[in-house]
Amino acid sequence: MKALMIEQELQCRFHEVEAIEPGPGEVQVAVRHVGLCGSDLNTYKGLNPLVALPRIPGHEIGGEIIKAGPGVPLDYRAGRRVIVVPYTACGHCTSCRQGRVNACKTNRTLGVQQNGGLAEQIVLPYEKLILNDTLPARHLALVEPLSVGFHAARRGRVAKGDRVVVIGCGMIGMGAVAGAVSRGATVIAMDVSETKTEMARKYGASHTIVASSGHVDKQIEALTDGDGADVVIECVGLPATFTQAIDIVSFSGRVVYVGYAKEPVSYKTQLFNLKELDIMGSRNATAEDFTAVVRYLETLEHSPDDLISKVFPFQDAEQALPYWDAERASTLKILIER
Questions:
Q1: Residues 6+ apart with CB under 8 A from 289
Q2: Which PANTHER family match (predicted)?
Q3: For 162-238, where are the alpha helices, taking DSSP H only?
Q4: Which position among 19, 226, 242, 300 has the lowest Cβ density within 10 Å, counted as fewest Cβ atoms?
């Protein structure tokens, strides 16, 4: 079968790889849609320290069951549509023992620590598949990235009446916006791209700030009656936005980091103490988050097709990452369709 492989920095092409038959407890899935993530782009650009090349990318996957191996429940029959949960959990580390399997110490995400789904087929344990025949096929691949943002809002204990700043309105940030709004918060969405901040308004942001407009701290003060944000969710991963989150959060506020800084970050740590902040990391998503996003998409009053910037047919997938690299400022989500 064909699979797209990132061979080395700035080089990807199709390879013929062996198709695998499902074993006990496993399901063979025809991959219909794969969303490309920032981690895939960083892998392509040689900036992802978690990836050893060559690697088949792709962990935002929607597909259709081909066949099931022995011991798989009868519900997982051929033709059923599925959402892939792309993470693993050892069941023994401190995170797993606390039920926080999304943060497993030895997690191996598809397309990152192991080959991903940008192939004609993939075989997975049935427990890693969420059956869904109600969402349009394209939207199945939107569930995982939105779930990461929903998880960040849950990590921040976002509640009704909170004023939440989301820094970065890419796909994860859009999930954080939607997740915070669904919890009753007033959201201020911030990005360098006016196109992306306007999209955030479609998903419930009450206010938007274009970061390049200047005096961001003053704008947030004005929008929060001088208090600062109750919760800041950072979805960029730059040292400047890491420290900015501490500056703009309120006293006794919460900061959630989803972004992954690629270089050291220097802080004025006295603000940690003076504000008595809760500072949290956020990693991946849980089954609860996936369920919340499916419910959200099933009841959304408009189609989330506007989140998809460009669709590449599977046979043209070699062009997708170079295109995104060239058009990053205007691109929210690229989808590969087969």
A1: 147, 148, 150, 151, 154
A2: L-THREONINE 3-DEHYDROGENASE
A3: 171-182, 194-202, 216-223
A4: 226
C-alpha 80/C-alpha 65 separation (Å) is: 6
Residue 41 has what pLDDT? 94
The CATH code belonging to domain 147-279 is 3.40.50.720
Tell me the sheet residues that pair with 28.
Answer: 67, 123
Residue 212 has pLDDT above 90, yes or no: no
pLDDT at 260 over 90: no
What does CATH list as the number for 1-132+307-335? 3.90.180.10
CB atoms within 10 A of CB 323: 16
Q: Is it the case that residue 188 has pLDDT exceeding 90?
A: yes
38-76, pLDDT tens digit by residue?
Answer: 999 999 999 888 899 999 999 999 999 999 999 999 999
Name the residue ranges covered by the structural domains of the chain. 1-132+307-335, 147-279
Report which DSSP code applies to 226. T
